[in-house]
Amino acid sequence: MARVFMASEQESLWHAVELRTGGPLPMARCGHVIRGRVHRRLGSPEKPRVVCGACSSGLRPESAELLALPS
Q1: By Cβ atoms counted within 10 A, which residue in 1, 20, 25, 51 is the most buried?
Q2: Dihedrals phi, psi of 39, to nearest 5 degrees
Q3: If DSSP codes are grouped into helix, strand and coil, which group holds residue 61?
Q4: What are the b/e assignments for 25-41, b being 16+ CB within 10 Å?
Q5: 26 by DSSP, 3-state: which?
Q6: Whose CA is closest to 54, among 25, 17, 21, 22?
Q7: What pTM value is reported for the model?
Q8: How far apart are CA 29 and CA 47, in angstroms?
Q9: What three-state secondary structure class fits 62?
């Protein structure tokens, strides 16, 4: 299943969300409900936010390159 990274405007973490998840309250892989206005990334998430530890630990190994953020 394809994943995207989402974060609300007030959050400092990116969360992994199934691509088909949507609606007014999308739920991340870690169980976090993303509320309010959101940012969504189909590819590598951008700084200054970092990826949620619980979400990143559940990603497939071939998705690890998505977590490698440029310095």
Answers
A1: 51
A2: -110, 140
A3: helix
A4: ebebbbebebeeeeeee
A5: coil
A6: 17
A7: 0.71
A8: 20
A9: helix
